[in-house]
Design goal:
heterodimer, A: 337 residues, mainly alpha, MetI-like fold, 2 domains, 15 helices, 0% strand, globular, B: 564 residues, alpha+beta, D-Maltodextrin-Binding Protein, domain 2, Dipeptide-binding Protein, domain 1, Dipeptide-binding Protein, domain 3, seven-stranded mixed sheet, four-stranded antiparallel sheet
Amino acid sequence: MKRYLAIRVAVMPLLLLGIASIVFIVSRLTPANPLVSIVGERNLTNPTIVAAAKARWGLDQSIPVQYAKYMKNLLHGDLGTSFTTRRPVLSDLWDRLPATLELTTAALCIGVLFGVGLGVLAARHRNTLIDHVARFFALLGSSLPAFWAGLLVLYIFYSRLGWLPGPGRLDPRATEPGRITGFFTVDTLLHGDLKSFKAALLHLILPASVLGWGVVGIVSRLVRASLLDEFSMEYIKVARAMGLRERTIVNTHALRNALLPTITIVAFTFAFLLTGAVLTEKIFSWPGVGNYAVEASRKLDFPAIIGVTILGGVAFLVTNLIADVIYAIADPRIRLS
Amino acid sequence: MSRIAGSTRRSGFARRTMALALAAAMVIAACSSDAKNTKTSTAETTSASAAGSTAGSTAGSTGGSTTAPSSGAALVIARGMDINSLDPSRAYCDTCQIFMTAVYETLIGLDPKDNTTLEPRLATKWESNTAQTEFTFTLDPKAKFADGTPVTSADVKFSWERLQGLQGSSSYLVSRIKTIDTPDPGTVKVTLSAANSAFLAQVNASYLGIVNAKLATTNGATADPTTDKAEPWFLANSAGSGPFALESYASGSELRLKRNDAYWGAKPAFPEVIIKETPQAVTQRQQLEQGGVDIAMQISSDVAKGMSGPDITVKQVKSFNFVYLALSPGAKGGEKLTPQVREAIRLALDYKGLVEVTVGGAGQSQPSPIPNGFLGTEGLSPPAQNVDKAKQLLSAAGVTSLTLDATYPSLNVYGVDFSTAMQKVQTDLKAVGITLELNPVEIAVWADKIGKDGIPVTMLYFAPDHIDPSQYAQYFGLLPKSQWQTWTKADAVPAETDLLDQAFAAQDLKARGALYTKLANAMIADQIIIPIVNPDLFLASRSDIKGIHYSTCCNLDLSRLTRG
């Protein structure tokens, strides 16, 4: 297993370089003009301003030269400077990643907890009203566009009912806690600021629920199907024949086996959430990587686009690896080689 | 037996679950009703509190309820920030105008009441020669930067030379400056390469704010783009003399300004101003209604509908922004856009319907590319639809059916959704036999296409940088190498260049107005730029916020805002 892990980790940088190369070439070949986000559309025909901008951002060089320079910088850990924020892409990602991680972690927790619970409930009450309601709820979560669901919950729970706070990670007038982890819920606690912790937690509920709702759908359907498979196994029949309580049979025996395939899905879902929180972040003015990615692609901000893609690649590769390892630990029959 | 028992248990569980769900639904409904009542009473409390100038009342301790701000609390503005830089020589955006005005003062200010009268700011007086080529400014000896050092002519020279040297987006404003002399610390003498009666208006543009030369230079600022290293420093620091200084900036999140306690003028009311990134108009409204923010600046007409109550004030004001259609006879596929066909297109459009469809009637039609209210626009005839004449013109031009590519940037600007506007244009032109093939794209794709092949029919927007009409002639007129002459590849019109030169050389306001009227009419006759709508602005705020004015040069002057 150690050898397997070492090989997987060693291959990662090569894969990332490959991803970066593909994105670099595709973005440069796109019929679009990134100068519009640098000088504004009102200066696009001003030769002096355009020439100065091209020279400053290296866009006056040939694509092979730009590629060689980018790769050289990349190997030194330099992802370049964003056209739009005018800051190093690495700093931008470093600043925004905790916000996205905090949101996706919360969404994943909500998704897994509710998804497993709903899946168990649906499986135990197969073809009853509970099952139908659970499946309808799951379907709704999987099919509702995050954009629409976000606006809806904001309207209901923030604007109409006033139960939960609106967009942002904290109240507009609040000052961000000093950065330790970048997770506001954690940092406020570490600073001993319970009032801000409560605010950060409450601000997390709506966006995390919207994002996690889709996960509920995926996980609950998977758990339901896996549990139903397990229920038809001999060992479950034996357990029932022995007079074990239904709760013990489900929670101790069936669920444990049924959760195995969920591990892979959850790992992949986490990576998807990391890269797919775009709309949720937009609606909730969440200053994370998703928002950054949208702006980068809209403005053809080459360095930022490649930076976000590399981050997404890392997320998928790492979560995939973690899923494999957890799978092997959870199921002794599996050996990684 | 056991199965039966189990089944009974399950159905019992199901019943219990259903009962629980029902109970939960009833509780939620009850709470929801309570919450609505609470919201109403909260609104009344806040209103009463506002009326009695009592601050600090709490609308609730959890959830969406927000603590009402005290009189000394920060001012919070919700808007979609479009900041490209906070370096005064590189910044160029609507939010940048607000930032620059608050942090970097200009030599000349603008009276927000009429948006035309220039007033002293860093300069107490100014004069020009009759040829409009030399301008002399006398600086206010009291003016000082936030670090206490006095504002001198050397700072003015450094700021404008850096703007010119770095060739940032707003550098066109100083392109005619030939030399800047500083005979003494309190006097600045500017010599231009050609007459420019618009120079004082340009000096009022927020982008010509003055930077503390010594502080900026210490942090890497130069006028040479190859050696200048100051932009990252300007993202975290400021070096101005304005009523506010930069506190912090988190791209995509918020911009915080703190009051410049050493400000040499009247101290601003707010100790801190926070501009929160809130791109959605709906969310801006929700946050304003909940008291989370004090001002929402990008409320569209449809979102503004129904915004009322004692806590909220919505001002509908005329703006100088507009959205226009551009016709390119020189574009690939636009060859049939002869002057006759272009005039037919102009006559085929239902201008009142366009204002109705795009902004729900909250706007005006605009006769020429120089917006209503600018010098020289008085008395211009508003555009009118004449379908019969449009058909006659097309018939005379031998055009029986015409299909045109209409690629446009997929934008929503000033509350105008370009797709909605283009669909209305498409419908109007269909009635005279012209088919538009609508193709919404991202602006970067649009920019590439218009720069290469050109686009026969497209749509864009414009907001002014200063109060002089010359910017419109320079941008929209068919002057050699102007933006739209280049893009449309239409033949240049020398008469427009002559008119602009005359306007630049004229000192008398009336004479300049007459020349700009002629220029406006000449641009109407070009039939290249057809304004579609001049939308009104909706400035929504909490009722206790006073002093909100829309400014041509500066968008919103934060120093004039007060609470209570």
